[in-house]
Amino acid sequence: MIKQQLDLVIDRKNSNSMKWHVKEGELPMWVADMDFRCCDAIIETLKNRVEHGIFGYSDSDEEWAESICDWWSDRHHWITQKDWLLFSNGVIPIISSAIRKLTTSGDRIITMTPVYHIFFHSIENNGRFVVENELIYENHQYQIDFEGLEKQLADARTTMLILCNPHNPIGRIWKRDELERIAALCEKHHVIVISDEIHCDLTETGCEYIPFASVSKQSADISITCVAPTKSFNIAGIHSAAAIVPNPYLRDRLAQALNDDEVAEPNVFALPAAIAAFRHGAPWLNAVREYISQNRKQVTEALREETDIVVVAQEATYLLWLDCSGLCADTRELCAFLRKHTGLILSDGAQFRGNGKQFLRMNIACPTPTLLDGIERLKRGLQLYRNR
């Protein structure tokens, strides 16, 4: 039943979809939301909330907090406490508020690149400086440059590190020893860690993510963990997220920041949707993970003969990272070419910094007919690009 729903191609045009606000004939496979119908449990919960008929101000409650604590305990083996939780309407608002409250104008903030490009906006738009700890890329795999990281952390002007776990766009799940080492270095140099874990439930079958704050007392004491049901359950437009903050001092400071920035008040659907997702959404999510895994295999197999394109092996997310270094030095031109000649819209990798300019990012969270259309356009576009 769930598989049949995931196979359904739903026309998202004229629905105010940012992703699908495109020209006729174009196929968007860039913005990180899914083209799958939301799970029935969430839809039914929201219908019931609409039927109530009154849509006044909302506030977070025990049931919401319990649903998150139970999910992280059962799904990710991390025991959290309800009073560690702070509601926010998004992960990026949490990050931006934390930057404004916990660092000072002119401070340096580290992030490991290539990485989700909005991190740069949150840092630079608030008068701080991005410090790129560029990930080491060898044999089509990424590793952390720990030697460079320690030098950057030792700079007294560095006050924060933004971690992406699992990492968007490369799809790495950081291992326990890597997380422990990050925590030890950051504690040594008095640096706060903001861990964006929004993709944590979208892992490959057989792969488990490890929450940063769960690996040691050090990691719990110096960190703010950002979580949400929005990526996993395709409800980004409902704006529901949480910060998990074990350290009471950091939690109080962040609570003040979120309230000052007016991003701590849930809309009328934010709590019911989250509760329904965490209480009843597991079967749907499991099916989605398997579907995405099959999509990843289909793209990888389809591109196997494209010797100048490599699909980087990934453990998480629904965002493929395509190494195009055998074809071009900068994918911005390739990205524009594909859109112009095939209508396929992908993300050029340069915006993620690091070595991203040799990559394309492709969103594969879509029904099989859409995926096959995207594969055909991509292969045709690559051939046209080579022959131009």
Walk me through the structure.
By secondary structure, the protein is an alpha/beta fold. It has two domains: 2-40 and 282-383, Alpha-Beta Complex (Aspartate Aminotransferase, domain 1); 55-280, Type I PLP-dependent aspartate aminotransferase-like (Major domain) (Aspartate Aminotransferase, domain 2). Helices cover 40% and strands 16% of the residues. The chain contains 13 helices and 15 strands. The protein has helices at residues 2-7, 40-52, 62-76, 91-102, 118-124, 146-154, 176-188, 217-221, 248-260, 270-280, 282-302, 331-342, 368-387, and strands spanning 27-28, 85-88, 108-113, 129-134, 136-138, 141-143, 158-164, 192-196, 223-227, 241-244, 310-311, 319-323, 344-345, 347-348, 359-363. The strands form four sheets. Strands 2-10-9-8-7-3-4 form a seven-stranded mixed sheet, with helices on both faces. A four-stranded antiparallel sheet has the order 11-12-15-14. The longest helix has 21 residues, at 282-302. It is globular and about 60 Å long. The termini are far apart. The mean pLDDT is 97.
